[in-house]
Amino acid sequence: MRKTQITIDVELDENHIPESITWNAQDGGVEKEETKATMISVWDDKTMEALRIDLWTKEMPVDQMKMFIHQILVSLGNTYQRATGEEDVAEWLEQIADEFAIKSAIRSV
User: Fold this and answer.
1) Hey, where are the domains in the chain?
2) Would you say 34 and 21 are in contact if contact means Cβ atoms under 8 Å apart?
3) What is the per-residue pLDDT across 45-84, written as a single tens digit (0 to 9) for each?
4) Does residue 19 contact residue 36 with C-beta atoms inside 8 Å?
5) Which InterPro entries match (predicted)?
6) How far apart are CA 50 and CA 42, in angstroms?
7) Which of 16, 30, 76, 102 is least enclosed, having the fewest CB within 10 Å?
């Protein structure tokens, strides 16, 4: 069996607010890559719930956070379709992402 590792390093200020975030992915050739935000979800099958870590730095611009969340919504639809094969639900999630883009002023009508 082969193992790999993905790590996230977070520097916090005196109020425990992220100052900087870097990540590493051995197999992806990523080393100490800076990022302004990360959202991680893991599934706990014992409690049957998603556990999340959502972090962003003070310098993360609001317009970029909106785009980040929009892209996550789009990817959720893609992941759902691949995992379940339910095209109709995946399309519905894509519509939600489109509506979010309009309501958050990422894209106009």
Assistant:
1) 1-57, 60-108
2) yes
3) 999 999 999 999 999 999 999 999 999 999 999 999 999 9
4) no
5) Motility-assoc_prot_GldC
6) 6
7) 16
